[in-house]
Amino acid sequence: MMGPAHSLSGAAAWLGVGAAAAAAGHTMPWPVLVVGALITAGAALAPDLDHKSATISRAFGPVSKGVCEIVDKLSYAVYKATKGPGDPRRTGGHRTLTHTWLWAVLTGGAASVAAVTGGRWAVLAILFVHLVLAVEGLLWRAARVSSDVLVWLLGATSAWILAGVLDQPGNGSDWLFAAPGQEYLWLGLPIVLGALVHDIGDALTVSGCPILWPIPLGRKRWYPLGPPKAMRFRAGSWVELKVLMPAFMILGGLGGAAALNVI
Fold first, then answer.
1. How high does pLDDT run on average in the chain?
2. pLDDT of residue 204
3. Coil, strand or helix: which one is 105?
4. Number of helices (H) and strands (E), helices first, in the chain?
5. What residues have CB less than 8 Å from 43, skipping those under 6 apart?
6. Which pLDDT band holds residue 241 (cuts at 50, 70, 90)?
7. Is the dihedral of CA 43, 4, 151, 92 positive or negative?
8. Which residues, in sequence order, are CB contacts of 23 under 8 Å at separation 6+?
9. Which residues contact 53 (CB under 8 A, 6 or more apart)?
10. With 90 as the cut, is the pLDDT of residue 166 above it?
């Protein structure tokens, strides 16, 4: 999938989680619903940090480009070291390590630990990174004609405002984890969800996605999961643009309304 579809699917997924929580009698505070949807929209772009042309690899200038090169080399090294006898030869690390359930869990867990141990500045950094990515994904047309600095300023300002809102009593800094010292522990959950939604989206495309690594399937450890090939599509095709993206918008709207008990 392309960046905008990944971000839309991520936001829709979190809004769906909000709807499920409301149905179970554990309604999310509205700031958690909004911030979670934005973080998931941004996190749904993160697995493509192994690709130099991806949105996330360009979003933070030389910094993200440098990180992209490191992640690509790391992913390729892990692939070569762990590939099974049925796995093909590769020349790069795209759609390997960062496109697995293990990577999703590790990055989400790292974010939760950072949020709890690093205090307010760690929370602001997590929000800033993912809000910039959310802008790049959800508002991609505007982001492409705007300067990077403007997008960064929007991300920083939004992160500061939303962190202030979440800090207010009852607004969700302690949502789900209410024990003292566990504020913002939940921030890792939308990051995990965003990464997994990205992987599922890529699994629908022609190349599939090795979500289950390191669990072997047959002679392959990097088995590209996906539906039957007749049901797959190419990234950026009309199926993605004309069918999936409108569907994500509708589902996201319905999920948000249900999460807020509007319907």
1. 92
2. 92
3. helix
4. 10, 0
5. 10, 130, 133, 190, 191, 192, 193, 194, 195, 198
6. confident
7. positive
8. 258
9. none
10. yes
Neighbours of 62 (CB within 10 A): 7
Composition of the chain by helix, strand, coil, percent to 5: 65, 0, 30
Token readout for 94 is 């795209």
What is the rounded CA–CA span in Å between residue 199 and residue 221? 16
Which residues share a beta bridge with 87? none
What does the block give as tokens for 127?
């929000």
Contact between residue 236 and residue 249 where contact means Cβ atoms under 8 Å apart: no
CB 49 within 8 A of CB 56: yes
Task: Return the half-sphere exposure (C-beta side, CA atoms, 13 A cut-off) of residue 203.
Answer: 20
